[in-house]
Design goal:
- There is one protein chain.
- By secondary structure, the protein is mainly beta.
- Helices cover 10% and strands 30% of the residues.
- The chain has one domain: Electron Transport, Fmn-binding Protein, Chain A (Pnp Oxidase, Chain A, Roll).
- The chain has a 3-stranded antiparallel beta sheet, with helices on one face.
- The longest helix has 9 residues, at 63-71.
- The N and C termini lie far apart (48 Å).
């Protein structure tokens, strides 16, 4: 006898929860005045290895994307397990 599989429908505003937990990264950037901004992100993935390409999901109103557009630079930091609480 074949067991029927059940399907669960989630509201779209809750669907992201099935993807958690994800790795948290700290993205640092600087503004035009040299002030450092550090923000935690989990919306990051590798899309190519040669050449190395990453995709970072950043909301358009955040300082991170404003800084990246202004300076064309940012750093992706991979925190150790020791920093889990702080991240």
């Amino acid at each position: 006898m074949k067991k029927e599989k059940s399907k669960i429908q989630l509201p779209i505003n809750k669907a992201h929860r099935v993807l958690a937990p994800r790795i948290a990264y700290i993205v640092t950037s600087i503004d035009k005045e040299g002030r450092v901004n550090a923000a935690s992100f989990s919306n990051l993935t590798s899309v190519s290895t040669e050449p190395e390409r990453l995709v970072l999901g950043v909301y358009k109103a955040w300082d991170t994307i404003k800084n990246i557009r202004a300076t064309r630079e940012f750093v992706i930091n991979v925190p150790s397990k020791n920093l889990l609480k702080e991240v």
